[in-house]
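Ticket #4471: structure export looks truncated?
Reporter: QA, pipeline team
Priority: medium

Steps to reproduce: submit the single chain below to the structure queue and open the exported record.
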Amino acid sequence: WQHLNENLAKLTAKFEKATADKLKCQQEADATARTISLANRLVGGLASENVRWAEAVRNFKLQESTLCGDVLLITAFVSYLGYFTKKYRQDLMDKTWKPYLGQLKVPIPVTMSLDPLTMLTDDADIAAWQNEGLPADRMSTENATILTNCERWPLMVDPQLQGIKWIKNKFGEDLRVLRIGQKGYLDILERALAGGDVVLIENLEDSVDPVLGPLLGRETIKKGRYIKIGDKECEYSPNFRLILHTKLANPHYQPEMQAQCTLINFTVTRDGLEDQLLAAVVSMERPDLEELKSNLTKQQNGFKITLKTLEDNLLSRLSSASGNFLGDIELVENLEITKKTAAEIEEKV
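Actual output as written to the record:
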């Protein structure tokens, strides 16, 4: 009887071990099946991106030899071409600077078809600017690109007040609007400097209050933490931004001020004026059509912005995934939702 009990105990132990091994194998098989399913879903979800990403990689490799020259040209474009007309900007880029770089004793390769907008911005940014009231012509888009990328304080030459309208819409209630000479403007400026606000000084004349000289030149003191405004040392936040504006069509500023600022010519171009006049005529004759066009344009721009955001989120999720992300169900599900939404928007665009 004792012998039978011992055999029963051994067999029971073997059975329990075999059952546990079976359960473990089943769990591993289920996990593998889930991983394969997630992998298939992930591959299926990203299949449409394969062609675009492969093309982007090829383009990046082609740009390796011209990147330094392209950056040099774009830097010069932002720094020096803001005040010129559309034609003069194009002529300087294509007929002067590009040939010059190629004729040096040690030539600097550049992309001959280089477009500054392609390197400095994208469709989503341009769409957002247009929704904020920026005219849709090429010159206005270049101006906005220069303004958002320049290191020196931008000075808008804006006789038709279209640039300032866009700036006020863009920054909204976060914008501090001042005029030189208004009561208490230096106190407001001092608080904005410390708080890291965006300040617009509008309607400048040919001469500027000398007390603003250190600010225009960013002459910081005490390890960059303060700037002198008059006799007072004002705390200076690195987040502070200054935008200058004049209604003068042909201002004559001192060379020092021109060196301290990036002048940007927001004067309405012929193309821009034609578009605006056409819109004005249509709004008078067929206000329903003009309203429909305006709403559709804003909707299309909104789709472009959303599409860019979704694409950025897609890449961000993939790049930030740690370890074996094939086991991250939430990640794959989020990617599927992102791709589905992006596909729907692309159809509408």
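Status: closed, not a bug. The export was complete when the record was re-opened. Leaving a note from the reviewer for reference: Residues 67-108+116-275 form a domain with the Rossmann fold fold (CATH 3.40.50.300).
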